Amino acid sequence: MARSFTFEATPAVRAARERSAFVNCPVCDSNVSGYLFHKRGVRFVRCFACGLVYVNPTGGEGTNYFDVAAMHTHEDARDRAAYVDDMVGVITRMVEQFTRERGRKPRAVTVVGRYLKELDASQDLKAMGARFVQTSNVEFQALRLQGDVTALVASFKGDEDIVILNEFLEATAYVRRVVEELAAKTSQETWIGVIFANAQSLPARTLRRYWPRYYDMKSAFLSAPNLAQLFATAAYTMVAQRPVPSNVSAAYFMERVGIGSKLASTVSPLRDLQARIPAGVQEALFRRDTNAQAAEKLSIILPIFNEARYAADVIEAVLEKEVRIPKEVIIVESNSTDGTREIVKTFEGRPGVTILYEDKPSGKGHAVRTGLKHVTGSIILIQDSDFEYDLDDYDALLEPILQRKTSFVLGSRSLGLDDWKVRKYSSTPVRGFLMNFAQVGFAKTFNALYQQDVTDVNTMFKVFRSECLNGVELVCDGFNLDIELACKIVKNGYEPMEVPVNYVSRGFDEGKKINFWKDAWPSYAAFFRYRFGS
Ligand SMILES: [Zn+2]
Questions:
Q1: Chain-centre distance of CA 447, in angstroms?
Q2: Phi, psi dihedrals of residue 506, rounded to the nearest 5°
Q3: pLDDT at 511 over 60
Q4: Taking each helix axis from N to C terminus, what angle separates 521-532 and 429-450, rounded to the nearest 10 degrees?
Q5: What percent of the chain is modeled with pLDDT above 70?
Q6: Phi, psi at 164, each rounded to 5°
Q7: Separation of 276 CA from ligand 1 center, angstroms?
Q8: So what's the pLDDT on residue 290?
């Protein structure tokens, strides 16, 4: 029998050949990435700088997955009804948030991206002013290959207060162009909602290449921090983000994760199961700062208690420290008994200084929370009232935030050549060693619980945009407010960027107020409380 030796390209080989456009990271433009896995000839990589998972190389015609009916994933009427329910949930939450902040209901909500005709038929959705836009195959390819959103923009009627991108951004590697176009073609007042497959979700991290949402026809896989960074380049700020509990039938779910679809559809008790499954879909909402650049201002919070020895020098140094944006200094004095209050009083009336007097000392965390209530700036920095940290590091800490590369910066005491400088106590070497050891343990625990990669989470230098605290309630009074802040900002969808800073440890005999056993252990427990609790 004659055999043919001509090479028949498999679907995987064809997919690999079609993808010929090598791209930099779609969100941060870095060209350094790590290989993750491949799926049918498509390479998935992760950006080292911002953590984005994306397909590289990209290109070639893709299946228009916006057309849910054509994808045959929602054949069962119950799955289609569940899809409509999910959408009602997302749009209701976004409309409520908008109404709360603007004091009126949105006039119209335009939804682009994935489409199902049942959405158009829903009375609930119609009542909320929702309009659904279909994307033709030609329009889809233009979006996929060039980030061309002519069709999206043409669908705007000018009255939409919210534009929702329903798994829309993932279709292209040119997401920055999409967001820029969107910013240019909508009013300053228009909010942008994003529904996306969250690459940081538990299903994504555990199922990895088997996570159905790592779909090889998509190009970029976002997470809340990536999205915040992406939208920040066009001066948007994140209002809220949360998981979308997907309502699907068990049959649908089993088919998606690739286990026995036949089994699921033939065994009727399984087929009839309906469950809310955390499928790893997330929603996020963005609005634009009306005059973001002009309004930049640094708010420095300076809690002071029984620091007579250092108080005047520290306040003077902070006031003298010049940064390239206007600044205010909020001093919180907690009724010291050593004359500190009198020293603080001498600064009353100095320009840019707000002094708050607490009736009694209720802890450093309490003082910081009091200060936070009076912040008027766009960026917040908390300064301890001693000289353990170097004020000259302010500029380096602020720059990534001002350049909108991140919204949250941690000054790391460990990212340096002399990385054992956290606790160097000549008089108490054993305690010094313990403190160093604890700091490493803290960072490792934090990384494991919050999927981060930081070297120093206990640092005093936490600098962040005020919106990082949107919707966050802080409750700690003591030193562990530091930990609460880091945990809750990360949980709120902002990832810290670390900047190495200088640090000179102050010995316990010089009045250091941290007690290792009294303060460290509650802080450590706090990691778990904020991760799994409220
Ligand atoms: Zn990146």
A1: 15
A2: -105, 130
A3: no
A4: 0
A5: 82
A6: -110, 125
A7: 32
A8: 63
Q: Is the pLDDT at 175 greater than 50, yes or no?
A: yes
Give the chain's length: 534
Tokens read off for 448: 């494991």
* Span 472-482, pLDDT tens digits: 899 888 878 88
Cβ-contact 140, 196 below 8 angstroms: no
CA dihedral sign, ordered 155, 156, 159, 161: positive
Distance from residue 447's CA to the centre of ligand 1 (Å): 19
List the alpha helices (DSSP H) in 421-493.
Answer: 429-450, 481-491
Whole-number pLDDT of residue 508:
46
Two structure tokens written together for 413: 């005491």
Q: Which two tokens stand for residue 351?
A: 């320009």
Q: Helix, strand or coil for residue 150?
A: helix
| Ligand 1 centroid to residue 504 C-alpha, Å | 33
Q: What was the pLDDT predicted at 376?
A: 92
Place of tokens 């250091």: 512
> From ligand 1's centre to the CA of 42, what distance in Å?
19
Q: What three-state secondary structure class fits 101? A: helix
Q: Answer for the pair 51, 222: CB distance below 8 angstroms, yes or no.
A: no
For residue range 258-271, what is the model confidence (pLDDT) as tens digits? 554 555 555 555 55
Ligand 1 center–CA 460 separation, angstroms: 27
Say how far apart CA 534 and CA 516 lie, in whole Å.
26
Strand blocks (E) in 86-190: 108-113, 130-132, 160-166
Q: Is the peptide bond between 326 and the residue preceding it cis, with omega within 30 degrees of 0?
A: no
Q: Is 5 exposed, middle or buried (0-12, 13-18, 19+ CB in 10 A)?
A: exposed
Q: How far is the CA of 230 from the centre of ligand 1 (A)?
A: 10
Whether the predicted pLDDT of 169 surpasses 60 = yes
Ligand 1 centroid–CA 54 distance in Å is: 9
Predicted confidence (pLDDT) per residue in 12-30, tens digit: 777 777 787 889 999 988 8
Q: Which residue reads 């870095």 in tokens?
A: 30
**Do 527 and 483 meet the contact criterion of CB atoms below 8 Å apart?**
yes
CA of 25 to the centre of ligand 1 (A): 5
- Rounded to 10 degrees, the C-alpha dihedral 131/135/139/145 comes to 100
Task: Give residues whose Cβ lies within 5 Å of ion ligand 1.
Answer: 25, 27-28, 30, 47, 49-50, 52
Q: Residue 72: is it exposed, middle or buried by C-beta count within 10 angstroms (0-12/13-18/19+)?
A: exposed
